[in-house]
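2 proteins. here.
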Amino acid sequence: MELAARLDRLDLPRYERTFAAMADSWKRAVGSTDEWQRVSLSFVRTVATIAAGDGRGLLWGNDVCPDVWREALGLSSAWCPPGSG
């Protein structure tokens, strides 16, 4: 829930919180590196929101804390493990 709430405060693309809507967002972002970063992180937010709503936890294999997001999330560099961003 905490991850979903933190990511919800960022200026990320908004869409219905479903896997189908994520797929549509991905199709629109293909080819734009800048937009892909925002859409990719919005996917983490969406999956975290769905998991929290179902009372489940979340394991994520993608790097969710690259340098470009640390300041926006209010995180110190110590928050991310070495090599993660």
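next one coming up
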Amino acid sequence: MQPNQRRGRPASLMVFLTLALLLGLLAAYVGVMHSIVDVSRIGGDHDANERDAAYSYLHLVFLAGSAAIGFGAGKWLNGLGIAFGTLFVIVVAVGMLAVQLSSYSLACHGHNDIVRHWQCD
């Protein structure tokens, strides 16, 4: 081993921790979205601007948080903080999109208000 080279953690630990953190972030996203489903009802106490602002902040916080968690995990696991941070942001963003598209499809087939109140045409 070179003097400036850092030894990483075992590969099985890296895979397990990465998957556990990503699944935890996506589960937290679904949980938070489900808990604020009332914000998406425009006819209720909130208007469209409040709804859009709430969702924008929520998504930005989750993406920034996933970048920070990924960076920390990558630094601790093998020193590749930026790579893990980027990986976490991409996977969480794709997961958010999948959750939204799935909930829209389910809403249009009679299962509304899972993570958002949708109005199907």
